[in-house]
Amino acid sequence: MCYFILDKKVVLNTRKTKKNMEERRVLSEPEKLQLLKNHKNCYLCQHTLEGYSREEIQFDHIYSYADGFPQDISNFAPVHSSKIEGKLNCHKDKGRKKPVDYREELRIINELNKIEGLKDLRPKAIESVFSINENQDKIIFNGVELPLYNQKIGSEDNYYFFHEVEVKHLENDEKIQLRTLESKILPLIFNLKKSVQLLPSLGRLDNKEKKVKIFDGQHKAVAQIIGNNRKKIPCLVFVEPDVSKLREVIYEAHTSFVQQRYKKSHMDAKLADMYRQKILDFRKRIGDDEAPYSEQDILGDKTSAQKRNFIISSIIDEIKNELNFVQNLVAQDKQEQKTKPMLWQSLERLIQTFCNSKLVDVPSDSNKNFRSQEIENICFIINEIHRSSIVNKWNPENQDDSNHILCRTYYYRTAFNNWSQILEQALKFSLEQMLGHAVQGDLCYRETFSSTTKARFSGIIAKLFNAPLWVLENNQKQISGANKDSLVQELFQTAHLDYIYLSSIGTSN
Predict the structure, then answer these.
(1) CATH T-level assignment (fold) for domain 118-254
(2) What is the number of other CB atoms lying within 10 angstroms of the CB of residue 113?
(3) For residue 387, which of 492, 505, 480, 466 has the smallest C-alpha distance?
(4) pLDDT tens across 311-336, in order?
(5) What are the Cα distances from residue 66, in Å, to 252, 276, 436?
(6) Helices 185-192 and 99-112: crossing angle, nearest 10°?
(7) Domain locations in the chain as residue ranges
(8) pTM reported for the whole predicted model
């Protein structure tokens, strides 16, 4: 079963089958006039509607009708919708986002444009009142008694405490925290609107100034202040630490001692699991375990990159259910590539090249939805690549074997990036020749390949890996040492290895 498929239309149709489901409301002219009287500004961007004709204004639901919210006139608002260059079209810019969510996004972006960091939000903290008991195991901080901990290193004491510190008592640490905000702050803000904050911001209590200065985690602090209007921020506060040593620790933490990130395969597995759970949650909300669903409804609140990653991870998960290729022949990293020919990044690139990594815009039960056929088609191509490039060649036990060296050459990153693109072009071109018309969309996202198509594709794939350039020792050395795709691309061009060569009829493999 495929776990990705489809679009908002399905959900609307599903909900409308329920009893007493009202049709989408169409506002009357008097109702529109009343809304314009009540709203002088665009609901989305909060800028004036003055200077916009009636044809340049749309009336949107504030809270989504598709999510079951009422259609009272109070749930509608006017928004800019001008097609004239230089004027606002918030209705179009919103895209598929819910109006209430897009309005909040614009508010946050507007707030972020005014600042460079926490120092602009909290330029000067209010002094804190604090005292430490004689045993140095408790601190009274702004009237709240808290446990005081000591991370003793040798004979040196390092006292700290945890607390939700009121924002008015916080300011940026100009001695340690010198960075401005990065672009990643925006997705972080939206993540913290619906997810728990796992780690606190780090601050130090300056005994002289009696202020808490944030030296690490300013992005989280700003995200909570702007995005969630928090009046208190979770903090780990060091009491009068050695600033010079702390500065050194922070630098090393962000450079030399950055911990290893999740392996891509683990991330893909987590994303696939999360996607399945999102589908289950969606069906639970609908009240139907078999309800059709849409990729837009499941992933509509994600960024374009996140949507793509979810879809690719789900496709890989489906491939793993059909083939053992991924488990047996795809390496997590270059070290593991000594025993498995294909890199995980290359697998993802293969999926992106041949499959549809965008959200599908047709219902899950539509005969125009080809997600399940897509899996069949990509599995066929992977099997043929396996048969032509790996079987009877890959032999990590004897790495000096000429066939093993040949196979290894195929799967150097720069070689793979080039031949995978050429192969996709050749297969699509040959399909166009067979059909007699241009082929639109991604190669695998269509009806299951016919037996005739499969036979033609098998020949092309075999021809790719039997091309003369691969066996020349000098070429193998150039490919193994190439650190740029363009270097291998030049080699392919010199050898005339392109989609025309691969798809030409009547040429031996």
Answers:
(1) 3.90.1530
(2) 7
(3) 466
(4) 999 999 999 999 999 999 999 888 89
(5) 50, 22, 42
(6) 130
(7) 21-98, 118-254, 264-503
(8) 0.60
